[in-house]
Each structure stands twice: as structure tokens, then as C-alpha cells.
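The freezer alarm interrupted the setup, so I double-checked each line after restarting. Inputs confirmed:
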Amino acid sequence: MLRILLINDTPKKVGRLKAALSEAGFEVIDESGLIIDLPERVQAVRPDVILIDTESPGRDVMEQVVLVTRDLPRPIVMFTDEHDPGVMRQAIKSGVSAYIVEGIHAQRLQPILDVAMARFESDQDLRAQLHARDQQLAERKRIETAKGLLMKMKHCNEEEAYTLMRRQAMSRQQKLIQVAEQIIAMNELLG
Amino acid sequence: MNDTLNPPLAWVNGSDAPELSSIDAGFMALTDSASLVVAATQGFAQPYGLNINLHRQPSWASLRDKLVNGELHAAHSLYGLVYAAQLGIGAQAKDMAVLMGLNQNGQSINLSAALKSAGVITPEALDRRTHQSGPKLTFAQTLPTGNHALWLYYWLASQGVHPLQDVDSVVVPPPQMVEHLEAGRIDGFCVGEPWGARAVSQKLGFTLATSQAIWPNHPEKVLGCSLEFVQQYPNTARALVMAVLEASRFIEQTQENRRSTAQMLSGRDYVNTPVEDIEARLLGEYSDGLGNHWQDHHAVSFHRQGEVNMPYLSDGMWFMTQFRRWGLLREDPDYLGIARQVQQLDLYRQAAEALNICVPSSPLRSSQLIDGKVWDGNDPAGYAHSFKLHALAGATPVTGQ
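Predicted 3D structure, all chains:
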């Protein structure tokens, strides 16, 4: 059964989503208001999906969403009465997987959640790939830096510098990046 | 040679950058995993925007399964493993690909200290011992369809011992060979280094024959993957080949680089065995445990100006001829057609040429093996049927086409 963390920031509507969700057979953990620390709640409750029911998502809501997306990524579905496309864009940018204006019907919940989760998975893949690429680029830059330092220190050419670093790495059973970091650190110490 | 279709969207971004930024690559704890290990750890793939994540595998069967189900994108593989998967022998058939050769030579057949004490230290003594009455000797190899089974069978047969009738065979993963020998569960084994050298240094056994004595510069490990991987990610596959080619060249550039390679491999995450056991035979310095020492002119090699890395069609076909010879294939396959599909000659040529590595003009090469037979890839069916000792499944010998 899907575990849903439900956030209501609209006291007058408390219960409209919860009833629909329970009816559709979901396990609902209910939290009223957005004064709570959302990342902390996510950490404690470990929901499969976060539903936010809000009349109009303000800056504080978006901030919470950004924090969750960064630290404890989960699919987030937002139900709202806000039609403004600008607000919708902002919400998607913050990390909301599905933005649903009005109309909560129990029978529509399952497909909405399915779309939100699929969307979330593909976002996560993309994020992981981007992260890997960033890291790769950063490593390459560090290796380049170390190679430059070594060329200066040893008065050697590029290929010789690489060979020296690789031999050093291999005889210590390390990766090239580790030796590059050591050269940079040593240079900082002596420089 | 190979008319695989371009992937549907390759032209959209018009780039030859790898489609994947990182791949998962499998390897076994063996000296001949060197070029893949060095490529992955020493920054050879990064300039292409590729990361190679290494995953050591406990056995060839497990490596094969992961390669076939896609858990691994590519792997340090046995020629025999790739072709058995292609033909569906011992596993579900899956279209496979050989991207390049990783090494030649560097395997060995070793016997136990007990056989040494009993005076079984020559091929003739082994021949006599296997034809005596009494319990059969048990030899271990690393996969029923793997290179080591085929080297063992070929060598035994060349000495007049029928490998399927005169001895028993069992499968043991390479890193466990020495342990099994010590426990007396096997009388000998055929495996890649450093496990033969390890048995010798531990005085648990001796080396009776090297694989290069069976076939000087024989094909051995390859960079294997599924055909689907090459078709889906051609740029990734090419970048991977380029990185491994550069690493192979680097390893053989100087003696110093070979030594560092041995150091690296001895690490816990790789072969996990003392460097002395790896280094000597990597440098061609052999001791057989019977008091003989020699510099081997056909020791393990990773590059030799690219000659080692060329995915020759004749190399791929040879393994199919041996499957046929020993009854693992009940009929002659389309040797050339299958080799053309599996060996990624076009991709290899692109990668090698980009690195100014010489590509032999012919996809076939000619070699003479220990039994005097010449293999040049021209008549695979005839060759498969030409052996005195065999286990051909009910076929009459076929002459050349």
C-alpha cells in the first residue's frame, strides 16, 4: 500500500483529500499546515508520495518543496485552486511532479499518482546523470590541475606528467584522482 | 563487415560523445584484467566523458549472467563465454559482441604436488597415469564452455589423453583453484595467471604446460558485451574501446609501467594476491616448480602495437570449431556469419585508427598449434572435423568446402 504524507495548508478544506484518499485505499499520514519542517517530516514518515493541498502555493511552500527535492527526493503532487501559469511553472521548477488544479475525485487519484511517480523516476534518472557528469568534469579539472603542477615541478611534458601520476597511483593501488588530490594538497602546503 | 543499423536517434545531436556518462564493467580476479582495470582507475576514459565502474565477479557464470541480463554493460570475458552465450550453450541464447581483444597468452595447466611426488611430471607420465586402471584424475577448468576447458582439452588431446573419457572435469572459479588443489579436491587445473604462479609459489603444485605452448599468441580474454549495447550506445562502446586500447598501450610502454600494473592488480579490490605472484609471469619470468626457470617469449601481452587487440574473425571462429569438436555444438554453425556478427571489426577499426594504432589488413590470421595443425580460419567445418580425438555428435567427417 502506498504511504502518503498529506499536507493541508487550508484549514477550511481539511479532510477533503483525506477522505478521498482513504476511500481509494491509501495509507494517509495527515499533517495540517505548512509551519512544519517538511524535510524532517519526510525523514520521519518515509512516505512514498507527498501530497500538498493548498489554496495557493506561496513562497514558503515552494521553499519546503525545494528542500525536500534536494535532500530527500520524493514524488510530490500539488492540489490547488491556483490557475496562474506562472505559479504552476514555479511549482514544477521547485520539484513538484504533478500540479493539479481543482477537482479531487477519488477515482482520478490513482492515475494522477501513477503519472507523478513515473515523472519523478525519470527526473531522478536525469538528475543522477547530470550529477555524474558534473562530478566527472570536476575530477577531470583536478587531474588537469595536478598535471600542470607536476609539469612545472618536474620540468616535464604533459605525457610524462601523466605517466608519473599513473605510476604513482598504480604502485599505491590508488586511482589517478587520488594522486592528483595529493599533488594539489602538497602544492598548497609548500606553496 | 558488420551491417548493424545506426541507432534511430544518433543523428539528432550529431555528436560522437558517449550516450552514457558511466558504465558498469565486470571483471574476474586475473592478471589479464589489467587493461580494463588500468583504463577504469587511471583516468583513460574520462577525456571521452565516460566513467568505467568496475565490478569484480565471483565466477565466470555469474559474470556471463549479468552480461546477458544487462546488469553489466561490458566485461573482461572469455572468448568461449561470449560465443557460448551467442549460441545458447549452457545459457539462454543472446546476441553478443566482442569489442576487442584484451590479451593473448598467460594461462597455464598445473598439477598437484602429490602428482609431482608420484613422478607425474611430464606429458608422457601423465599419459601413462591416465590410462592406468584406478580412479580417474580430476581436472578443474573455469567454465564448461570457457577458454580454459578448451585449452585443457586441446592440450590433453595433443598428448593422447581423451579429455572427456580419460579424466574427469569440474568447474572451479579462478581465485579458488589453489585452495581446491590444497584441499586435494582436484589433481590439476587450467586457469589464467596469477593462479598457476600462486600454486607454484605455495609449493602446492607445478606448471606442466603454458597456454602459449599450446598456441603461441593465442586469443584469450576479450572485451565482451551484448550486441544490443553496441547498437544502442555505439559512441559509448567506441569510447570504451579507445580507453582500453590506450591503457593497453600504456601498460606495455615500459618495464616500469608493467611493474606498476602488477602492483595495482595485487590490490584488495582487484586480484587480491601478493604482487610477487603476479609480477614475475606478467614480465615473462617463469618458474615451473620443477626447478626450471625461463624467460617466456610468449608471455601475457596486452597490446603489441595493436596486434593483440584486433578482434580477428579467425579467433572467434576457432572457439566455435572446438565447441563442435567436443560435442557442445551438435551441428556445424555458420562459422563465418556468426563471427562477422559478433566481432565488432568496424567499431574496432574506428577506435584504433583514431589512436594511430595499426589495424591488420586481413580479419584472418594463421597459426600453428602444438599438435602441428594450422588454423587460418579458411575451412572451419573441415578443421572442426579433422581431429583424431574428439566427441563429435554423430557426424561423418566433412572435407573442406
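Quick read of the result. The first strand of chain B starts at residue 22 and ends at 27.
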